[in-house]
Amino acid sequence: MNIPENLKYTKDHEWVKIEGDIATIGITSFAQSELGDIVFVEVDTEGELLEVEEVFGTIEAVKTVSDLFMPINGEVTEFNEELEDTPELINSSPYDDGWIIKSTISDYSDLDVLLSSEEYKNLIS
Q1: Is residue 36 helix, strand or coil?
Q2: pTM of the entire structure?
Q3: Which of 58, 30, 27 is nearest to 43 (CA)?
Q4: What is the full per-residue pLDDT of the chain (125 aa) written as tens digits?
Q5: Does residue 18 lie in a domain region?
Q6: Are 53 and 120 in contact (CB under 8 A)?
Q7: Position 51 in a domain
């Protein structure tokens, strides 16, 4: 299972990559494998200020539809528009081309409660 060490993780199986004051957010390799083939991603919260655990979108797989939860407080600044035509990027490249949103970071202390790669490995094993 691919769990990059440079990312932070949530118990809801989202990953967070911090670059300055912007967080890139997606779902983990584990999550996409559990969901199966991703067929649709909907994010209608672009431009909204959301709090931790608020739903920022949904992801639809052949098996199910799942909510996507904000791992931090921040404003959704960008949606990965590539996912509109090719949502399967989440299956083939969950940590790179399959990112879902970018968000500002309103409170850096939110990052303290996220899991390290080692903690996330322990959660899913």
Answers
A1: coil
A2: 0.96
A3: 58
A4: 789 999 999 999 999 999 999 999 999 999 999 999 999 999 999 999 999 999 999 999 998 999 999 999 999 999 999 999 999 999 999 999 999 999 999 999 999 999 999 999 999 99
A5: yes
A6: no
A7: yes
In a domain, 101, yes or no: yes
Do the domain assignments include residue 42? yes
Residue 73 belongs to domain with CATH number? 2.40.50.100
If one counts the domains in the chain, the total is 1
Residue with tokens 């407080």: 73
Domain that holds residue 85: 8-108
Q: Which of 61, 50, 62, 57 lies closest to 26, judged by CA?
A: 57
Residue holding tokens 């996507």?
Answer: 68
